[in-house]
Amino acid sequence: MKAVSLSNQKGGVGKTTMVTNLGTSFAKRGKRVLLIDLDPQHTMSNIMGMSEMENGLPELLLKKCGIEDCIYKWDPPTDYLRNKYAGLPLYILPTSESLNLLDYDFYGVSKKEGLLIIRSLLERIGEMGEYDIALLDLEPGLSIFTRNGLAASDYVLVPIHPDSVTVDATALMLSWVHYMEEKAGRKLDVLGLLVNEFNTRSRVHNDAKDYLLKQKHIKVYRPFIKSSTLFYNSQSSKMPAVIYEPWHQGSRDLEKLALEVLKDVT
User: Fold this and answer.
1) For tag attachment on the chain, is the N or C end more exposed, with fewer CB atoms within 10 Å?
2) What span, in angstroms and rounded, lies between the C-alpha atoms of 8 and 197?
3) How far is the CA of 121 from the CAs of 62, 67, 87, 133, 187, in angstroms?
4) Range of the domain at 152
5) Torsions phi, psi of 208, nearest 5?
6) How far is 26 from 47, CA to CA, in rounded Å?
7) What SS3 state is found at 195?
8) How many helices (H) and strands (E) does the chain have?
9) What does the pLDDT look like over 229-244, one tens digit per residue?
């Protein structure tokens, strides 16, 4: 099982949108996908309609439930979609606000051990042989859970908005990835940048696009995902955009983007 974290120090860059839609697109291509919510805001769990589950990541970390009792097959919100996607191999390990309460508990072990808690969990899940790819939704900043997620990952994807503030924050994020490589004692392969909410009419966005495509330091995936109400509408309907309106240009672009990422992950 390959573990891929989506992370940026800056919030509001479409990280959860990318996690849910890339993961669903992978599953539509036959990959067995596990989405893991490591953000105490539990936005991903909420978007996927899994925020009210009895068990989740906090209970699993506290050993109140087994792995099989905390991972759920995604259940589409309508009968029509349940029938259409009955065989979709998409699974969720949700979280809740109670994950915040565990933050300090993580410091009850050594710094080295504290960074390996999620890695140990993913190794146990990987040994089950039931998933091909795990996508980790990390919270903004560098909390103990974000550091844990990075330390547990084989690859890192960095969602960004095409503006100077986000580009600067991304540079800082990449420096932290290298720092985490040293602390975790493993190589973290930064696959590239995922550009989200691109506005073709914005001079700032087009200037950022020119800069990103000219620089040679890090891969920039194409296509750029354009701003659209599609994502707000799909999230309020408790499903990814690629399920909500698969024929929409935004969904088609996400499917293309997923295919490009999949080439680098598998």
Assistant:
1) C
2) 15
3) 12, 9, 26, 14, 18
4) 2-265
5) -65, -40
6) 18
7) strand
8) 13, 7
9) 999 999 999 999 999 9
> Are 195 and 215 spatial neighbours (Cβ–Cβ below 8 Å)?
no
- CB of 221 within 8 A of CB of 194? yes
Cα–Cα distance for residue pair 140/6, rounded to 1 Å = 10
Report pLDDT digits (tens) over 26-52: 999 999 999 999 998 999 999 999 888
How many domains does the chain contain in total? Answer: 1
Look up the CATH number of the domain holding residue 103: 3.40.50.300
pLDDT tens digit sequence for 133-190: 999 999 887 788 888 899 899 999 999 988 866 667 667 767 777 777 777 777 778 8
What pLDDT is stored for residue 181 in this prediction? 73
Q: In one letter, which amino acid is 258?
A: A
Angle between helices 164-184 and 203-214 (to 10 degrees): 40
Q: Whole-prediction pTM value?
A: 0.92
Long-range CB pairs of 163-166 (<8 Å, 24+ gap) are 163/204, 163/205, 163/208, 164/204, 164/208, 165/10, 166/8, 166/10, 166/13
